[in-house]
Design brief:
About 45% of the residues lie in helices and about 20% in strands. The chain has helices at about 15-35, 50, 55-60, 80-90, 135-150, 165-170, 175-190, 190-200, 205-215, 225-235, 240-255, 300-305, 320-330, 350-365, 375-385, 395-400, 420-430, and strands spanning about 40, 45, 65, 75, 100-110, 120-130, 155-160, 220, 265, 280-285, 295, 310-320, 340-345, 370, 390-395, 405-410, 415-420.
Length: about 425
């Protein structure tokens, strides 16, 4: 028999990890409800045209795309935003703005598997659609900070930039959008030399090349200082200067919100997705060199899908990456799980009685594992001990005649006889 393994880039989560993943997902849901985001569920399979439209070259090349049996070209979603924008352009087009939408689930990209990068990965996604005001961008940064803190991560840092600054310079230099996208792709991968070469070859002025070169080197934690430096660098480019202004307003609001965010402004920062138009950001912890979350403003996507012009800003949080970061930080995550009570019949002819008692306890919300291997009581007790069960219920002939069972406290190594009618209540008191 051949030993089957998961497909490359896919993995199994064992109970311990699955619990940690669900814990993080639960925190994402709590964050959604704290900020008024409503959950939507979108399909894993979307039309190729939709997800490829503004994904960017890098993502397009890495999509799981195929023809379905009806001959349609489809793809597994590589991210959530396109699906949400599709909904807002169609079914939700007449809903009052702003729309705050939340979704969570698995995504697929044919990446080279490495630490923290898999072909199937999980994200929680928050989109705020309908406002182009800096308050909206600030909200996305703040809710991301709150989620990261609520799961128990330490030393998180935000890397923040603004696509409008770079695009403002490139557009003024009359570089076509296609060329701009190629430049942004290189900058996203930190291939700055290549990026500048494309700028030169596309016929940008000497001043344009110099301006971009200066922006690439510009970053720091003193946000006010970096923003002033950026303003000086792009003073001849009106659109870019406006973008710096906008970034300043967003960061000003965040600073006044009373939450201390650790922010580095990086003027040469670009992200791979082509739909961004404004502020962009990523979140890191010192233990990992991959982003735990990323997002930004995209004002033209809904329109591209046939909707009304709808400014929007959003973020995706990598649930499995956050899990990895928590493991790297050896964080103490309180995953309290009630161990089931184990119900053991003393002999085969009591199986039906044991089953009935187990169901009665479950009806009272007591988790129960029933002994289904027909093992001897001593063997079953050993097993219960190994599993760390707190209590065992032993169903025996003698006690049943009295309408009772034996309740054994595995920690204290004590046992008492308890009436079946009182069992649920007794267990609840002892467990809590």
């Amino acid at each position: 028999m051949s030993a089957f393994k998961p497909i490359r880039g896919m993995r199994d989560f064992l109970p311990e990890e699955a619990r940690l993943m669900r814990f993080i997902e639960g925190k994402a849901r709590e964050t959604a409800s704290l900020y008024g985001y409503k959950e939507i569920i979108t399909p894993v399979v979307e039309s190729y045209e939709l997800v490829a439209a503004k994904a960017g070259e890098e993502v397009r090349l890495r999509m799981y795309a195929f023809e379905d049996l009806g001959g349609r070209k489809v793809a597994l979603r590589p991210e959530f935003t396109a699906s949400v924008a599709r909904l807002v352009a169609t079914t939700l087009r007449n809903e009052p703005k702003p729309l705050r939408l939340f979704c969570v689930g698995s995504l697929y990209r044919y990446d080279e598997p490495q630490k923290g990068r898999f072909r199937e990965f999980w994200q929680s996604n928050f989109e705020l659609m309908g406002s182009d005001k800096p308050e909206a961008d600030a909200e996305i940064l703040l809710l991301t900070n709150r989620l990261m803190k609520s799961v128990g991560l330490k030393n998180i840092t935000f890397k923040v930039g603004h696509v409008g600054v770079l695009r403002g310079v490139l557009s003024r230099e009359k570089l076509a959008e296609e060329v701009q996208n190629q430049i942004m792709q290189r900058m996203d991968k930190k291939l700055y030399e290549e990026a500048l070469k494309i700028v030169q070859n596309a016929g940008a002025s000497e001043r344009g090349v110099r301006t971009l070169q200066s922006l690439i080197g510009l970053k720091g934690e003193d946000t006010v200082k970096v923003l002033e430096e950026m303003k000086r660098t792009v003073k001849d480019y009106a659109e870019a200067a406006e973008a710096v202004e906008n970034l300043g307003e967003i960061l000003g609001l965040v600073a006044q919100a009373g939450e201390k965010l650790d922010i580095t402004v990086d003027a040469g920062f670009a992200r791979g997705l082509e739909y961004y138009t404004g502020m962009i950001f990523e979140v890191y912890v010192p233990e990992l060199d991959i982003a735990l979350a990323g997002g930004g403003r995209y004002n033209r996507l809904v329109e591209l899908f046939g909707g009304e012009p709808t400014p929007a800003v959003g973020v995706a949080h990598g649930i499995d990456r956050i899990m990895l970061a928590l493991q790297e930080q050896k964080a103490k995550v309180n995953l309290k799980e009630t161990q089931p009570v184990i119900v053991i019949p003393v002999s085969g002819n009591l199986n039906a009685e044991a089953l009935k008692i187990a169901e009665m306890l479950r009806a009272e919300n007591v988790p129960v594992e029933l002994e289904v291997m027909r093992r001897k009581v001593s063997k079953a007790l050993e097993d219960a001990d190994r599993k760390g069960a707190s209590h065992v219920v032993i169903v025996g002939e003698k006690e049943l005649k009295e309408g009772a069972v034996v309740l054994k406290d595995m920690q204290k190594k004590e046992q008492t006889t308890v009436k079946i009618g009182e069992l649920a209540k007794t267990l609840k008191t002892q467990i809590s």
